[in-house]
Specification:
This is Probable dipeptide transport system permease protein dppC. The chain is mainly alpha-helical and 265 residues long. The chain contains 10 helices and no strands.
Length: 265
Amino acid sequence: MGWSIIQGLLEVFFGISGPAIALLPHDPFKYNLVVGLHPPDRTYLLGTNANGEDILSRMLYAMPRDAYISIIVVLSGVLLGGLFGIIAGYRGGYLDEVIMRITDAFLSLPALILVIALSVLFHETLGGVILALVIVWWPIYARFFRAQTLRIKNLDFVQAAKLGNVSFAKLFFSYLFINSIDPVVAYAALDFGNVILTYSTLAFLGIGLEPPIPELGSMASNGVGTLPTGWWYAVFPGLAILIIVIGFVLVGDRMQDIVSNRINY
């Protein structure tokens, strides 16, 4: 129920709710076997798939969906990582050891393999895939926040806040979290592309799909069987994934340059 509400709000925000379909070149769910595997032309700019569905319309429908899934995963990773990382860095001792050993356990395994295993455990539903991605994604942010917390927790403004009997909640959010976020934001911008790439790989493998809703990864997977005659079916969704990931890499790289000039170590 909760996921349905969140999904509905995000669909409205990103414009992929029902009324938005009318703005697409063609209905992304309309079968027309007469034009199955139709090559790109003026009517179907990127061609059609085996069912005669317009590839461009299905890609335009899928891309915002992939975007909000990456936003959910990265923001959840930042929040959970911030919570555990700051607590570990600030409290230290046994609590720090326990949290860091848990993060080591997650980071020691290949992320994709771990996501696939957790997705299967969660019955390969879309919500299960998102939950699996969040579980795998938070440890790296915990490491970031712990390192930043160790750097700033003994600075004068934090010590002054402690002497002023500031509540732990205010100390956590207003002093530790806010002052640790800059390098994390730069990495998170880069990480959106990583999430989309991982999610597209899962869709390529058929994990987390909700037919007939299109996914870039599943479109590329289905198109492999039509190569080389129906090359457009696999090539254009694959190119879309590549362009999106490269775009986030460039944005993240630029943000890292900006942040590195702001932080004085």
